[in-house]
Amino acid sequence: MRSTVLVTGGAGFIGSQACRLLAEQGWSPVAFDNLSTGHRDALGEIPLVRGDVRDAPAVAAALDRYDASAIIHFAAKAYVGESVVQPADYWDNNVGGMIGLLAGARAAGVTRIVFSSTCATYGVPGRLPIRENDLQRPINPYGHTKLACEQMLRDHEVAYGTRHVALRYFNAAGADPWGRMGERHEPETHLIPLALRAASGQSGPLRIFGTDYDTPDGTCIRDYIHVHDLARAHLLALRHLEEEGESLALNLGSGRGSSVRDIVAAVETVTGRAVPVIEEARRPGDPPVLTADPTRAAESLGFRAEMSDLATILRHAAPWFGHEGRHEQAA
Ligand SMILES: NC(=O)c1ccc[n+]([C@@H]2O[C@H](COP(=O)([O-])OP(=O)(O)OC[C@H]3O[C@@H](n4cnc5c(N)ncnc54)[C@H](O)[C@@H]3O)[C@@H](O)[C@H]2O)c1
Ligand SMILES: O=c1ccn([C@@H]2O[C@H](COP(=O)(O)OP(=O)(O)O[C@H]3O[C@H](CO)[C@@H](O)[C@H](O)[C@H]3O)[C@@H](O)[C@H]2O)c(=O)[nH]1
C-alpha cells in the first residue's frame, strides 16, 4: 500500500517539487498549506488541505483523515531580511507552527517528521565548509526560529519518541527540471530570480547588497542547491525514518560556494544578456560565507547533489523569468 505523507507548505517552491516527486515515486502526498505564499496550481492533481499549521486540531484531523504515516514540514516564513524587521511574525508562524504541528502529530500518533531547517542556524561559521556539529549561533530571527524548532524536535523525541530528520538546506534554487513549476515568491527577494529578471528587463537593475565583505570579490558567498536535489533528499529521509533509522540533522548543499558576482556572471553566460547592477550597502542579517560540508548526508542517506551546478540551476530557472531555457526531456 502507498504510504501517505502530509506535506505542510506543500504548495510552496520546494514543497511542491517534493510533492510531485513523492507521487512519482509511489508515495501518496497530501499538501497542507494556508496558501500565504504558496500556489494551488503548483500541485497539479495532488490533494490540498487548506489549513494553518498553528491550528493543532486541523493538523490532527488531516493526519487522521488521510491516515498519514509521516510528515514533511516545509511550512514557514523564510525570508532572512524580512525576519530582521518583522521578527514577531517569524516567531509566531515558524515556532507557533512547529508547536501546532507537533501537538497535532501527537494527537494523531504520527512520530516521523522530516523538517526544513537551514544553514541560517549556523550564523557566522567559525570554519568552512560547515559541518553539522559546528556551533549553531544564528545572527537573524529567521535562523533563531529554525534553531528553536530543531530543539523542539529533539525534546519531543526524548519525551514522546518523535523521530525526525532536520535537513539544513543551503540556498534553494532552480526549477522543476521538466518545466512544470518554477520559483514564484511574491515579493521575490532571492538573488537568482532577481538576477534573471534584471537580465530580461522585467525589473530594474539587480541590487548587490554589500561589496566590502572579506571574500575574494567582496560579495557574499552562498552554496546553491537545485530544488530537485532537495526534493530527492526528502524522499531518502522519509525512507530512513520508515526503516526505523535514528534521528538525524544533515546539511544539504553542493559543497561549492558562489559569490553574488559569480551569480551575475553565470546569469550573463546562460542568458546571453547583461545583468545591470547597482552596488548597495550590506543587508542586515547576512553572514559573509555559507558553504556546506555535504559528507554526512552522503554517508547516512546516500544523498549527493546531482543538478546543483550553476549552469543547470540557471538553465532550468531561466524560462520562468522571460528567457529561453532548456528543460530535460520527458519526466
Ligand atoms: N528557499 C530556500 O533557499 C530555503 C533554504 C533553507 C530552508 N528553507 C526552508 O524550506 C521551506 C520551504 O521554503 P520555500 O522556499 O519553498 O518557501 P515558500 O514560501 O515557497 O513555501 C512555504 C509554504 O508554506 C506555506 N505556509 C507558510 N506558513 C504556513 C502556515 N502557518 N500554515 C500552513 N502553511 C504555511 C506557504 O503558503 C507556502 O506554500 C521553509 O521552511 C524554509 O524556511 C528554504
Ligand atoms: O537582490 C538581492 C538579493 C540577494 N542578494 C544577496 O544574495 C545572497 C543570497 O540572498 P537570498 O537569495 O536572499 O538568500 P538568503 O538570504 O541566503 O536566504 C535563502 O537561503 C537561506 C539559506 O542560506 C534560507 O534559509 C532562506 O530561507 C532563503 O531565503 C545574500 O548574500 C544577499 O545579500 C543581493 O545581493 N541582492
UniProtKB/TrEMBL annotation:
Catalytic activity: UDP-alpha-D-glucose = UDP-alpha-D-galactose
InterPro entries (alphabetical): Epimerase_deHydtase (IPR001509), NAD(P)-bd_dom_sf (IPR036291), UDP_G4E (IPR005886)
GO biological process per UniProt: galactose catabolic process via UDP-galactose, Leloir pathway
Signal peptide as annotated in the record: none
GO molecular function terms attached to this record: UDP-glucose 4-epimerase activity
Obligatory cofactor(s): NAD(+)
Source organism, top-level taxon: Bacteria
Keyword NAD: yes
Pathway noted in the entry: Carbohydrate metabolism; galactose metabolism
Keywords, ordered alphabetically: Carbohydrate metabolism, Isomerase, NAD
EC number: 5.1.3.2
Domain NAD-dependent epimerase/dehydratase: 5-253
NCBIfam families in UniProt: galE
Complex and partners: Homodimer.
Protein family membership: Belongs to the NAD(P)-dependent epimerase/dehydratase family.
Name of the protein: UDP-glucose 4-epimerase
Species annotation: Rubellimicrobium rubrum
